[in-house]
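Case 418 in the screening queue. Each case pairs one protein sequence with one candidate compound; here the compound is FE2/S2 (inorganic) cluster. For every case the pipeline is the same: read the inputs, emit a complex structure as tokens, and attach any notable structural observations.

Predict complex for case 418.
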Amino acid sequence: MGNLLRRYWTPACLSMELVADGSPLEVRLLGEDLVAFRDSNGKAALFDRNCPHRGASVFYGRNEDCGLRCAYHGWKFDVDGQCVDMPSEQRSFAERIKIPSYPVHESGGIMWTYMGPPESMTPFRDFGTEDLPDDQVLASKVFWDCNWVQSLDGNVDTAHISHLHQFFSVNDVADDGSDKPGYPSNAWSWKLWWLSRAPRIEVSDEWYGFKYAGLRETPNGYTHARVTAYTIPYGTVIASIPFSSRELFVVPIDDGSCFRYFFNTAGNLNPKHHGGLPMTDTPYARGGPLQSGITPREFTAENKYQIDREFQKNEAFSGIRDFVSQDMAMTESMGPIYDRTKEHLGAADLAVIRLRTMLIDAAKALAEGTEPPGLAGQGDFRSIRSAEKILEDGEDWRVLGTEEDPAVREALALLEQG
Ligand code: FES
Ligand SMILES: [Fe+2]
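Case 418 output:
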């Protein structure tokens, strides 16, 4: 699986974590210990942790004058890893020394890297960050204390929003007339999830991975579809009204922990305000608008995610006062990497099953010499979108979020106008 992951450009850290001539950053990625830094010219680099002289960590080095200088004997390396100064030797052999390094590319507020064989490197996959104006760049990351697929499973598991995230005052959401083909209000959508707790799952394989729909019957007898897209190996766009192209990448630190990167992409527009205002009347802590940076963890295993049993009895299904921490509590409490032979999967887990079989099949195929799916050049990654809608009679959920979808066309027209 590691060999497969190394064939894809992978988030290594946030761009904002690196300051020109500032402190180097320890980066653990795919089980490997690395050091990132930004040189005097603003160029970022990602090095092996150990200095090629005698192995001291270059994290303790001096980031100065366009290079990182090891604190032990002063050997200095430029952003390409080339040794450019060897002050401890009377006869320098710097030109023959390189610190192992990985190529990096900054896009959308994230420093990405490619850790695979150099001869197999493919171009960067543009999910809609390459042309994103600076004022729309938004990228955050948060640490999860469990295996990356365990964390990713929850992104393709629409059934749990009918339970884990629910709160009981959703019963008071009144029928506002939006239970008909088209876009329900965001509040009515919450209620639909609560009223129909055993969604039917349909999966459609795509060139980039798959998309799937959770289909729920509404009180008026219509079909409500939540469509989420998965891009092999790390990416998901979670269902949203009318659609979304914001990416959530789940990236392994090692087998037992991961970072979840959330980033904005171009074209994520809703000029007709389908769905109206977001549902704000929840009993959960309000985090305010989304912000770039490292999201702090206040709800952890150590404090039992601050579970409040009265709150659980009377107000919210989980008893945990923070939406994302509800997810963390479920997937982290399985342990760092759960023994999946002990699971009992059902029809509501169809997308979770597809996620796992797709990854395993691709890893096995690569071992037998078949190139991985979903690499650059196979399609336009900016066209990957989620969606959420109440379907017209005979409307195919597979069209939602594509360029055939009127809501997407509205957004693209607006994007073109600049
Ligand atoms: S170990 Fe880095 S210069 Fe000696
Ligand atoms: Fe969730």
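Case 418 observations:
- The helical segments are 2-5, 148-153, 186-195, 309-314, 323-332, 350-367, 406-417.
- The first strand starts at residue 10 and ends at 14.
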